[in-house]
User: What shape does this take?
Amino acid sequence: MNGKKSIYFNQFCRNKNYSYLCFDFRGHGKSSGEFTDYGISDWYEDLNILIKFLNIANPILIGSSMGGWVAILFSLKNPKKIQKLIGIAPAPDFTIDLLWKELNEKNKKKIKSNKIVRKIINKDFYYDYSPQLFKNSRKCLIRNINKTFNGETIFFHGGNDHTVPYNYNDKFLKKKNFPQLLLITIKNADHSMSDSYSLKTISKFI
Assistant: This one.
């Protein structure tokens, strides 16, 4: 909730007099719980419960990276409840299509032995990948969902994204999940897509 994108879109919506809601999934930001205890199915349920509890009708759903996977999942499972889907470097199925492929055999054995794998990004940041992340995400794989979301769909990617390749979601060009899909690549943007040019470009589609 304190991320640069969330703050920017909050202010953008205030200026436009749009209703705006953002939240932290379990194990993220200000929410309780440990990230390593959950997976995509849990975070999908967080979104589902919020929309039902607050009786939010026909929203524009925006998800970034892992949140993009959750947003894609929700739009396909509830196609009539969403007006528009915006993915910011969305990473559907990343547990098997990205993460598992980059783990070495030693770390794969750790996951299979119910141990946590730590990936150090730099001296101040790291990711912890748990068996729970893989297990809880299996039934949420988009590749296994044949449903369709007919609303406007825009996926943004950064040409300088070293986490989710800019062509990662080209696979949806051949699939029938999103008939109104628009893929936009911003040349010098990284995975966060938090630079001012990316944020201004994304906001044009809200």
